[in-house]
């Protein structure tokens, strides 16, 4: 009886912690892109992103993508800030999840990288720089969707890495892409333009600060952090995946059965 009660409590707790992408305010208080048009980012979008400014120098990033079939060891979903609608010379924030083919033990990590032409190179940060630039990382694999969210600095308070780290308080086109990844890099995204997983690009340029003009943001980079930490950061383990959304329908049955036992 005690084990069953703990199972119910655990189920409800996991559902409460599930990542929810709220599309309310898209175009007014946040920047959103979802495919296919009219899809629900919590149900059936094959790729999508929502950006919102939630505090001074803090931008919340939420991304979703359909999981690759058959499952790959690592899959990424990423956004790029670009001065035009074409890949090349873009600042990228990428979320990578490892052990995609397993039910437990997956590892999410967020990186900053740079599109040099048609190739992508990661900008390695030490732990202090990474902790300054990114916070509140969370992700889950729900049914056939990969979901990731984190908070990123708009004006990074770290060294600009010879121009590879950008001040995002400026107009940009926004792009989103997904694909398989390797330990040190991402692989090419879907190239078939007819695929629902082909990268999406905003129709117009936008400045992220537009959606948070009630906040004041820094105007310059901070000096390089002096540290003895290594530059290349290992993947960090985290909690196991959240419960599948398909289990939501089982809650009334489980609760009624639980009540009958008493």
Properties at a glance:
2 domains; Immunoglobulin-like; mainly beta; 262 residues; seven-stranded antiparallel beta sheet; five-stranded antiparallel beta sheet; 3 helices
Describe the structure.
Residues 68-179 form the DOMON domain. This protein is mainly β and 262 residues long. The protein has two domains: 1-18 and 249-262; 22-242, Sandwich (Immunoglobulin-like), CATH 2.60.40. It has helices at residues 2-17, 127-133, 251-260, and strands at residues 31-35, 47-55, 58-66, 74-82, 90-98, 107-116, 119-122, 134-142, 145-153, 173-182, 185-186, 200-201. Strands 4, 5, 6, 7, 10, 11 and 12 form a seven-stranded antiparallel sheet that branches. It has a five-stranded antiparallel sheet with strand order 1-2-3-9-8. Helix 1 runs antiparallel to helix 3 (251-260). 32% of the residues are buried.
């Amino acid at each position: 009886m005690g084990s069953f009660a703990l199972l119910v409590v655990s189920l409800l707790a996991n559902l409460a912690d599930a990542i929810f992408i709220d599309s309310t305010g898209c175009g007014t208080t946040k920047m959103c892109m979802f495919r296919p048009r009219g899809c629900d980012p919590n149900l059936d979008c094959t790729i999508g992103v929502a950006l919102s400014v939630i505090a001074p120098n803090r931008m919340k990033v939420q991304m979703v993508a359909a999981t690759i079939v058959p499952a790959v060891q690592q899959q990424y979903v990423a956004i790029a800030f670009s001065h035009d609608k074409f890949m090349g010379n873009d600042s990228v924030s990428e979320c990578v999840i490892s052990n995609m083919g397993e039910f437990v033990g997956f590892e999410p990590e967020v990186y900053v990288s740079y599109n040099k032409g048609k190739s992508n190179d990661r900008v390695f940060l030490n732990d202090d720089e990474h902790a300054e630039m990114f916070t509140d990382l969370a992700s889950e694999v729900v049914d056939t969707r990969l979901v990731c969210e984190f908070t990123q600095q708009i004006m990074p308070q770290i060294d600009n890495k010879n121009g590879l780290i950008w001040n995002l308080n400026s107009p940009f086109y926004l792009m989103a892409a997904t694909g398989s990844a390797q330990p040190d890099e991402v692989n090419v995204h879907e190239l078939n333009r007819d695929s629902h997983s082909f990268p999406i690009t905003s129709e117009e340029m936008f400045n992220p600060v537009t959606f948070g003009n009630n906040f004041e943001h820094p105007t310059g980079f901070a000096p390089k952090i002096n540290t003895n930490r290594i530059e290349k950061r290992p993947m960090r383990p985290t909690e196991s995946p959240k419960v599948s959304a398909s289990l939501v329908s089982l809650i009334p049955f489980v609760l009624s059965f639980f009540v009958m036992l008493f």
